[in-house]
Design brief:
single chain, five-stranded parallel beta sheet, binds adenosine monophosphate
């Protein structure tokens, strides 16, 4: 089963991805994590993206599209992909469709975790203490939320016509969100 988790930063995509990875014995593709690793390892990509990432801006489609490609074509991961934080633009969504089709796969579910801004601010402030992420200060959080909403609206429109698109109230407790996801995937 291939699943896309969609929603603003702090919506719980990471938490639900980790749950699904265990449950479905699958693999999480978190572009945020892949990008943070590039920075940590001080790679050429890392050097290119560090300022934008710390500023809450999106990294270019070209860079993220390149990063995810090897996961999609990895035979071990075939039909066991959980996308967390990708796609975030229509161009990324189209790229994903193309790669999924080319690798003879399909997307089984697109879950949109819809969360209010004030709930997200509280969650990210807690996460900042737990994970010490350099892009988790309040200013950056607000920038990331606004940027997310602005850029992903067209992506939402793109996916909402899909019968596998499911909107879930992400303001609820983690377990309740998990229960709703479970009910949809029904395995
Ligand atoms: P996340 O861990 O998903 O909240 O992502 C953290 C940051 O990584 C974002 O604020 C962006 O700067 C960058 N990022 C992650 N995924 C993408 C993506 N699909 N497209 C562009 N930028 C991304």
């Amino acid at each position: 089963m291939n699943i896309i988790l969609f929603g603003p930063p702090g919506a719980g995509k990471g938490t639900q991805s980790k749950y699904l990875v265990k449950k479905l014995n699958s693999f999480q593709i978190s572009t945020g994590e892949l990008l943070r690793n590039e920075i940590k390892n001080n790679t050429d990509i890392g050097k290119k993206i560090i300022n934008d990432m710390n500023d809450g801006k999106f990294v270019s489609d070209e860079i993220v599209n390149d990063l995810i490609q090897e996961y999609i074509f990895d035979p071990i991961k075939k039909n066991r992909l959980i996308f967390d934080g990708y796609p975030r633009s229509v161009s990324q969504a189209k790229n994903l469709n193309k790669l999924i089709e080319r690798s003879n796969q399909k997307i089984d579910f697109i879950f949109f975790l819809n969360v209010k801004k004030d709930v997200i601010i509280k969650r990210i402030e807690n996460r900042k203490v737990l994970e010490n992420r350099s892009d988790d200060n309040l200013n950056t959080i607000l920038k990331r939320y606004d940027k997310y909403m602005e850029t992903t609206k067209p992506v939402l429109e793109f996916y909402s016509k899909n019968p596998n698109f499911k909107e879930i109230d992400g303001n609820q407790e983690i377990d309740e969100i998990t229960r709703k996801i479970d009910a949809f995937i029904n395995v």
